[in-house]
Design brief:
5% helix; 5-stranded antiparallel β-sheet; Metal Binding Protein, Guanine Nucleotide Exchange Factor, Chain A; 9 strands; mainly beta; binds zinc ion
Amino acid sequence: MPKVISRSTVASSTDAQPTASSTAALRVYYCICGEFILVIDKVLSALPRRRTDNAIIVRAHDSEAGKARVFKLNAVAGDPLVIERQSGGHERQFRLDCPRCTLPVAYQPTPGPVKSSEYLYILPGALTQMQGQIPSDAFDGEVTTA
Ligand SMILES: [Zn+2]
């Protein structure tokens, strides 16, 4: 059994205090190295995914299309990437890395702090709810899906 360490990291955060009602439903996600990365008000598996790269879409701001998720991401800014899409377009991604092992865990379409963009994208297979376990979708990209 993996050892689950206390959630004091989450509880001690001072910004973005969740309300009492949302606290009960908050989910905690870890990098595969065991570092705490994300606390969010919904399971990631229930969130929509991008068709281009299967990244999990986290809405960071309210709009007419939907309400923003309540979340807090523990990550540091990584290298910006330019991705070439099959449609011929280009997309800039500003990576957010795990502060401990520096693996990329998420990205935003614009530079700046977390939540500066309308959406945050979580890389598929990057996070797990069980500290010390590899997420079940970590190798999804290597399997051809119909
Ligand atoms: Zn890590």
